[in-house]
Structures are given as structure tokens and as C-alpha cells.
Write a structure and sequence with these properties.
The protein has 215 residues and is α/β, with parallel strands linked by helices. It has two domains: 2-42 and 100-214, Ribosomal protein L4/L1 (Ribosomal Protein L4, Chain: A, 3-Layer(aba) Sandwich), CATH 3.40.1370.10; 50-93, no CATH class. The protein has six helices and six strands. The chain has helices at 30-42, 103-119, 136-145, 161-167, 183-187, 196-214, and strands at 2-7, 13-19, 123-126, 152-156, 173-177, 191-195. A six-stranded mixed beta sheet has the order 2-1-3-6-4-5. The radius of gyration is 27 Å and the shape is elongated.
């Protein structure tokens, strides 16, 4: 069991909640965590780059000028890679860099990432972040009160447009709902800020998944 303090938006601790490590897999799984991080970065690669090889460039295959007697260096067709407008040597082709992992492995990697943040004291819980309208200044003040001055991932219980708009202009801060959390996004930020609703939702999801695995 470990305890996490719950703060209000003024940065004051209002209570502490106890969480069983077994909910997040009991221990960190480095190999699985690395696999999930590699997949996260690979899936962000577009792979849409494409250049024309010599065979794709439009033009004649006729030799530009005769081999000898002109005083120039020998030269072949105008599509050669050494001439302007010619093809590209070892031309790049479109590729699909995406990777996949089984659902249970992704959940286990996510839990390992959360457990790593908790054990390194980089996870915080805030009582609530509800807003009637977007207020970026209020969110900047809240992060300052919580002494978060590095990159941060904010986990909410569900998608909230006002919270998203309030955080989107703050550098190095991203917002995801508890269902969207993944190992790559968690490890890509120094701090992990849960709303109470998000943490309770995540504990429920992890507990139901572990029960399903036992069955």
C-alpha cells in the first residue's frame, strides 16, 4: 500500500488516499515499458517522405554528348543523380512505421508507467479542475501552486473541453482522459497530475481488468 496526498487548487493538502500497489501490477516491468515507449514514438512517425529515383524522373535515356572528343567529362543521360533535375540516389519511399501491442500488454505497460511515477514522487492528485469556461491563467496559477514547473501530463476523468482549452496554450502540458492514458505519453512528461475522478476511474479500470485476467 502507498499513500498519495490530495491537493486543492491552492496547493494545500486536504487529505491522503491509500492505493494498493497490486492495482497497478505490484511492480514495474522495464522490458514491457520500453516496448510500449518504442511503439509510442514509432506511431508518431508519418513516413510520408518520398523522392524520385533515377527511373522515376521524366527524360530521355540518350547520352547527352558523345563520350570522347568534346573536352568535357564523360556523361550519360540527363536523369543521372549527379545532374540538376536528375533522380535521387537511394530514393526514399513511403513507409508505415506503426507498431501494435496486445491490449493487455498496453494496459500493463501503462500501469507500470503510473507506478514508476508514483514511486519517484512525480505523481500528484488534485481534488477537482472543473471550470465553467476556459481559463488558462487559472490553470497556470494552479500548476504554480502545485510546484509543477516541468512538463506535465494532466489526466482527467472524462474529456472536458474547458479543461483542454485551458491547458492547450501552456508549454509542455498535455491533457488526456483516463481512458486515453498510455505508457508513452506518461513517460514523455516529468509530472503526472491526476484529478480525483481520473484516479478513481483508472483504479476501477485496472481492477476490472485484473479480475478479468484471473477469470
Amino acid at each position: 500500500m502507498f499513500e498519495l496526498p490530495v491537493y486543492n487548487r491552492d496547493g494545500k493538502e486536504i487529505e491522503r488516499i491509500q492505493i494498493d500497489e497490486a492495482v497497478f501490477g505490484s511492480h514495474i516491468r522495464p522490458a514491457l515499458l520500453k516496448q510500449a515507449i518504442v511503439m509510442f514514438h514509432a506511431n508518431q512517425r508519418q513516413g510520408t517522405v518520398r523522392t524520385k529515383s533515377r527511373g522515376m524522373v521524366r527524360g530521355s535515356t540518350r547520352k547527352i554528348y558523345r563520350q570522347k572528343g568534346t573536352g568535357n567529362a564523360r556523361m550519360g543521360a540527363n536523369r543521372t543523380v549527379v545532374r540538376k533535375g536528375g533522380g535521387v540516389a537511394f530514393a526514399k519511399k513511403t513507409r508505415d512505421f506503426s507498431q501494435r501491442m496486445p491490449k493487455k500488454q498496453k494496459q500493463a505497460a501503462r500501469n507500470s508507467a503510473i507506478l514508476a511515477k508514483i514511486k519517484s514522487d512525480d505523481a500528484l492528485v488534485i481534488d477537482q479542475l472543473s471550470l465553467e469556461q476556459p481559463r488558462t491563467r487559472e490553470m497556470v496559477t494552479t500548476l504554480s501552486n502545485l510546484k509543477i514547473d516541468r512538463s506535465c501530463l494532466v489526466a482527467t476523468g472524462s474529456y472536458d473541453l474547458n479543461i483542454y482549452k485551458s491547458f492547450r496554450n501552456i508549454p509542455r502540458v498535455d491533457v488526456l482522459s483516463s481512458e486515453q492514458l498510455n505508457a508513452g505519453a506518461i513517460t514523455n512528461h516529468r509530472k503526472l497530475l491526476f484529478t480525483r475522478e481520473a484516479l478513481e476511474s483508472l483504479i476501477q479500470l485496472s481492477s476490472s481488468a485484473s479480475v478479468g485476467n484471473k477469470d
